[in-house]
Specification:
By secondary structure, the protein is an all-beta fold. It has one domain: predicted glycosyltransferase like domains (Thrombin, subunit H, Beta Barrel). 0% of the residues lie in helices and 53% in strands. The chain is globular and about 30 Å long. The N and C termini lie far apart (53 Å).
C-alpha cells in the first residue's frame, strides 16, 4: 500500500518573537505567547488547556492589527497557525 504523507511546510524566514498574545473568538479570550512568526503564520504556546477554535483572531501586544488565523497543527499546548492575509483587521 502506497501512503502519501502531507507535511506542514514552515516558512524559512521565521523570526523569534516571544511576545504576549491573545486568541480571540466570539466572547472567548485565551492568553498565549507568540513564539515565532513569518509573513504567512506563527508558532504559539497557549497558557491553558482550553479548547482552541479552528479559526480565530490573534492580537499581538504592541501591534495595531489583529490577524485572522487558521490552525495548521497542534501538539499539546503548542500550535502552528497560518494567516489569512486578506482578513487583517484593525482593532475596533
Amino acid at each position: 500500500m502506497n501512503t502519501k504523507l502531507t507535511r506542514y511546510k514552515t516558512d524559512s524566514r521565521r523570526i523569534v518573537l516571544m511576545k504576549r498574545g491573545t486568541i480571540c473568538s466570539g466572547d472567548t479570550s485565551i492568553g498565549c505567547v507568540v513564539l515565532n512568526m513569518s509573513t504567512g503564520g506563527a508558532g504559539l504556546a497557549v497558557e491553558s488547556d482550553e479548547p482552541i477554535p479552528f479559526a480565530f483572531e490573534l492580537k499581538i501586544e504592541s501591534e495595531p492589527i489583529r490577524r485572522r488565523c487558521v490552525v495548521a497543527w497542534r501538539l499539546e499546548r503548542r500550535l502552528g497557525v497560518t494567516f489569512e492575509c486578506d482578513q487583517l483587521q484593525r482593532p475596533k
